[in-house]
Each structure stands twice: as C-alpha cells, then as structure tokens.
Amino acid sequence: MEGLVPKFLIEQNVSYYTIPAAMLMGLTPRVATLGWYGRFFHAQYPRGLPDDIQLLPGNAVSPRVRARLLRADAAMQNAVENLPLFAAAVVAANASHGLSAAELNACCFGYLGLRALYMAFYVFWQDSPAFPALTRTFIWAMGVAVEMYLFVLAARQAPLVVVEGARTWRIWRSRARDSL
C-alpha cells in the first residue's frame, strides 16, 4: 500500500490544502457551463444562469444539453453549500492534534474523490439508465459520511478539560490512556 501512495501524503499533513481544492472543484461545473454557453451569461445577475439556460432558444441547445447545463449549475450550488461543513470538519480534525497525517489526508482526498464522482454522475451520467438518481445520492451521502467521520475522530482525540477550582488541566486523551 505504501508504494501506491506518495511518501509526503503519509508524512505531511496537507489536509488544509484540500479546502481550497474543494472550492475550486465545486466551481468547475459553472466555469465549464460558461465555457460552453457563456454568451448567454449575464454578469449583472450571475445567479440567474439557470433562468437564462431555460430561456435559451430551442435551436441554441438540445434538450439533453440544456438539462446538463442546469445540472452543472445545481452541482456547483451543492458543492458550495457543502463546503462549510467540509472546512469545519478539516479544521476540527486538525485542532484535535491526535490524528496522523496519513489518516487526515486519506479522509480529505477521499472526500475530494467522492465530490468529483458525485459531480460526474450528476452532470454527465444522470440521464443514463445505467445510473439511477439514487446512485448520485448514495455518493453524496458517502461524502457527508466522510465529513462526519472527521468530526467523530476529532471528538475522540480532543483533550479532556478538567476544571478544579482556579486550575484548569488539559489532558490529551491519548496520553491519558497511556498513563492508565
């Protein structure tokens, strides 16, 4: 397994870098949509892109392409809505100081992979009978499960705080287990 994973991903924590990567990945469907049909985009009202796509003349795009453009915009909206939870999970996991770099990186890159797969299913394969909508929902749920897993790992590694009169003691759980 170690031969398949670059050494720096096992030894160095790069999880914070996955937050901007998730944001850029989430914006990719919108950028692609603008690349395809940017001439119909109105910069004064960028949130109106779905309405603009709906109002395209019938000869401008096929119904299949129109549906893909709308799904691309919806995939971007979903990514932006999901980003704060992912960012909070990464920050919480890092703040706990108890997770290995390999574990953090695996979760974060796993999340990015699931998001990429989700967007591909949503935008390109949603209209395929081989991949029902439930497939996309399952992939989305797995991404949310990774976020929740990061929170659980962070909670399990967070320090215990013992308040005793005017003194406050922080006991790191891994050290507390070792001393028992």
Automatic annotation (TrEMBL):
Q: Major place of localization? A: membrane
Transmembrane intervals = 14-37, 104-125, 137-155
Which InterPro entries does the entry link to? MAPEG-like_dom_sf, Membr-assoc_MAPEG
Please give the coiled-coil regions recorded for this protein: none
Gene3D superfamilies named among the record's database cross-references: Membrane associated eicosanoid/glutathione metabolism-like domain
Q: Which SUPFAM superfamilies match?
A: MAPEG domain-like
Asked if GTP-binding is a keyword of the record, the answer is no
Q: Where in the cell is it found?
A: Membrane
Q: Which UniProt keywords apply?
A: Membrane, Transmembrane, Transmembrane helix
> What is the recorded name of this protein?
MAPEG family protein
Species of origin:
Apiospora aurea
